[in-house]
Each structure stands twice: as structure tokens, then as C-alpha cells.
Amino acid sequence: MSDEDGQYFYHPLENIEDVELFYEAVERNHLTKAISPERPYTYWTIELYDQKNGIRGGGGLGVLAADTRRVAEKMNIPFALITPFYPYETHQVVENGMVRDEHVPVNYKDFGFKFIDTVNVKCCDNLCKLDVIEKKFKNTRIIAITEPNFGELYSGMSGSDHRLYQEVALGFGGYAALKLLGLKPAIMQLNEVATFFAALARLDELVRNGMDFYEAVVYTRKHTLYTNHTLVQAAEAEFSYEQFEKYVFPNLKSTAVKKWIADKFDGGRIKLSSVTIEIAELRSGVSKLHARVANYHDIAGNKVKFKAVTNGIDMNTWVLPEIMEFYHSFGILDEFNAPTTNYVEKLGNLSGGEIRDLKKTGRKVLNEVLKGRPDHNGRILHFTDDDFIFDFKRRFVDYKRPELPFRDPVRLRNILEERGAHYIIAGRVHAGDKVMSGKLRKLLETVAADEYLRDHVHYLPDYDEKLAYGLSVGSNAAINVPIVGLEACGTSWMKDVANLNFLISTHDGGVADASASSYLNVSGSSEEEELDMLYQRMEEAMAASENDFDLEYILQQQLKAYLPVISGARMLKDYLDYLFPK
């Protein structure tokens, strides 16, 4: 700790942890306490996408958070997920070719959350009162903080005052909520840098309760895992020293901690990734490729190494129940939905007839979902069992190239017309993203200009979990063509593989965890070559769907390569092995 002059002085380690156990753990690089109901695995996220429990997120980060909690419940791991509950959620509609946002108020009481109490954070010389709400499950829980003016998810620019307020409220308010509930984190997993302030709140508490500042830093670092989802550090927003004076420093009681964070500013600006790297000794990337190429540096300028823990999905949530029954009945998946030791051999039971029957069941589910989801032309869609459906269902951002297949509308039309196929686009344009709004408008204009495409290409607005599930189980082939080197992991493709869809993809993100020969790979030395390969793969997928040998071979190869990759149980086991090495 330090006095007002910034000189550090010693306080012994008392009433925090057992001293000998702590230092033994530090020496062996182990955590000091096992996970228990009183000391749960804590998972911090600015976004949760869990519509079943009343929280609508914005994309894959939130879906991953929800899946991680569900997998922890399946594996009987004491787990607390801490997140904001946003009092408004955004829905999208299409009018005259333009995407428009609608803002709908939501009340946590309607979704089974229980009010616990209130906690305060300090902002701009004011006390901001936050409601602490909780929803308990068997061995896991969602703890959320909220208040009427909290706004929507990602409201304001990424470096704005309001965004900083939301992140400070989650960190300091969420940590106070844990204490309110009598919980001490065995581990703090920070799901991206927006959650940094939770670890800062813990560091501040340790010091003000009597731990020597340096010991507190070591302790916090040993018990904090930073999971990065972004490839390039330079792409992250910055905050100013003045913003921290208004929103961060008032919530710190320790002079030493204030000085520590103040010293991390460079030219009056700070990137949260820089200080998150400093406060978390454990760091993970979300795919093998991502962990290898992520370009991050610490304060001293040294390149940061990330442990590869590829994202996974909760199979029970995203895979058709009839397909899950098949996986379990033939011993392909175990009780935790992880692949069995002989799953490769057991996949030989997957026949063309079995695949077609399962896809027919999935198609019924998709048609039910589509009954209340008109496309951009106001049409309610209904597909027969024989209709072949391509889909692009992921965030509508530039690097994912949603417009790529429409570069040559004549060739696309010829491919679809060959078998009367349909192409469905579902993805949200982020509010304020004028570039992608323009690309979506141009794409829809291209479709409208061709009579055949007009009837066979469908944009479905307001993409959400329900639509994602329907398309995963009811489509035939997924288009996933990010620019190679820009996708951290992605999880939409995982749902497609598990639901027996052809994966047509570039070799990027989590897809690159296995060989490019494991799926219908799209590659080339130029974008023109990639486009030509994409069209070829679309034709191959349609042809393979009518040939039992090709159908079985391609889908079995995908499952052999990716069932271990996509398993949420595998993901959580990898995290536990990293956090608690044997």
C-alpha cells in the first residue's frame, strides 16, 4: 500500500487467505482455493444472450456466455455469471429496403429474476444506485445489475462516457453484488476487456483490507483469467484520464491502486486491454489460430502470449433433440456431450437415410419458426423437404463478407436455379454502422433486380436465438466466408456442423482448428478466386445432397474433425485444466 506521497509501505497478509497456502500456490502456479458454492467460478461479461432467461444480447459474445453457464450446470460446477440487465432491447425491422431499430422496454421481473438489494457506484460526484437481481439454477446463477437509465447494450460510442459508466457499473457494482450475496470468487474470468473493472475492484478490496499492495497484485493476477476475442489491440477504444477521474477513481479507496492505474496512462489515454493484461496473469484466446496470431502487447511493449481454449457450444441448446438422441444412442457423445473415445468409429452409423430423416425433422422446426418471421418483402416462408437451403446467419459485419456470393448475381442465380434452391440471409447490422447498412441495401437492390433471385433469396430481419436455432436445424448448407485472419473463432458454424449441415467456409477462426480438408473449404490467392471456389462448393453441396456416398462422407468427415472442437464440455474442461493444473 502507499501513503499520500505515493511511498509504498508494508502491511502483512492477514484475514484474506491462509499465508502458507497462498505462497505455495503462487510457487506452483496453482489457485489457492478450490471451486465451491461459496467460492464459485465467476464469469464476467458485458453481454449475455439468453432469451430463455429474458436477456437479449447482440451477438456471439453473449451467446457464448449463456452456453458456458449452461455447460457448467450440466457438469455440476458452481458457477456465477455476472452481467448487466439492460432495461431496453433492440429489435430490427425492414422498411423500404432500410433497416430500422425499435427499442422495446423489458422488466427483469417478467423473467424470474429476484430483487436482492441495491449497491452504489460513484460517477461524476454522484452516487448511482444499482439494483442487484439474481436468478438461481441447480448449481449456477445469473447475477445482474441494472437501473432504469442504464440504457441498451453497446449504447453510445465505444469510448463514450456512457459506455465507461456501464463498464464501471458492471465491475464495481457486480463485485459489490457478489459480496452482498456472500460469495468470494475462486476465479474471475473476464470475458473481454469491458469487464476489467471487476478485477480492479477486487484488487482495491484486498489492499484496503490489509494486504500488502504487491501481494494483492500477485494474488489478483493469479486468480484472474482474461479471455480475448479480438485479434488486433489497436482496434480497441481508448478512454481519457479525465473520464477515469469522473467514473473510475471515485470508486477506488486505495491510494496505491489509484496510483497503479494512473501510471498506466500514455499521453493521457488508456486502452483497457493494456491494463487487463497487467491484472490477469492467465490469458486465453478463443481458437488455436487466434491464440497464435492475436497481436497484443503489455505496457512494456512485450508481445502477449495467449493460451488457446477454443470456444464451444451447449449441444443441448443448439442441436436438434433427435440428432442428440442419435449421438447418444450410438455412443458418439457421453453424458456431458463430449465425444467418446471411439466416436470416430461410431460415426459410421450415420447413413444417408438417417441424415435425410433427421433433416426432415429439422425442416419442420424451421417452418414453425418462420411462421411469425416474414422476410424483407413481407412474405411468410414455408419450405418443402426437398428444398435446398443455403444460409448466411451471423453478424452482418464487413470482414464476414455477407455480400460475397452476390458479386456475380448471374452465376448465383444459375446455381440456385439448377435445383430450385433458396438462399437465406439473417444477421444484425449494428446500430450506427452506416457502411454495412449501405451494403445490405445494395445487396437487397441486387436481389430485387433479378426475378429469380427475388423469389429465392430472403433477408430475415431481427436475427435472434430462435431464428439461429431454426436455421441451424432446418437449412442444408452454411456459408461462412470471413476474410482469413480476421475471425477470432465464431460459433454459428459449430451449430451447423452438429446439425448435419454442409459447412462451406474459409479456413479461419475455430474452423482452422482442424484440417481444411475436413469440410467444403473456400480458398484462393485473391478474392476473385475465393468467389469462384465458393460457387463451386455451393454446387458440390447440392450434388452431394442427392448422393448417399458423398452425403455420408462429407458430413462424417466434418463430425470426425469438429465434434471435439465444438463441445462446450471440452471447452470448460480446457479452462479448468488451465486454471487448476494437475
How confident overall, as mean pLDDT? 91
Would you report the number of β strands? 19
Helicity, in percent?
A: 25-40%
Our count of domains comes out at 2
Q: Treating each run of at least 4 consecutive H or I residues as one helix, how many helices?
A: 21
How do the strands of the widest beta sheet line up side by side?
5-6-7-2-1-8-9-12-13
Range of strand content: 15-25%
What Rg do the Cα atoms give?
A: 25 Å
Describe the protein.
This protein has 582 residues and is α/β, with parallel strands linked by helices. It has 2 domains: 19-311 and 574-579, Glycogen Phosphorylase B (Rossmann fold, 3-Layer(aba) Sandwich), CATH 3.40.50; 315-566, Rossmann fold. It is built from 21 helices and 19 strands. It has helices at residues 19-28, 60-74, 161-180, 196-208, 213-222, 241-247, 255-262, 272-279, 288-293, 315-318, 321-329, 343-346, 352-370, 409-419, 434-448, 451-456, 465-474, 492-498, 527-544, 548-566, 568-579; strands spanning 41-45, 79-84, 88-95, 98-105, 114-123, 126-136, 140-146, 187-191, 224-227, 238-240, 269-271, 282-285, 307-308, 389-393, 422-426, 457-459, 477-480, 502-505, 520-521. It has a 9-stranded mixed beta sheet, with helices on both faces. A 6-stranded parallel beta sheet has the order 16-15-14-17-18-19, sandwiched between helices.
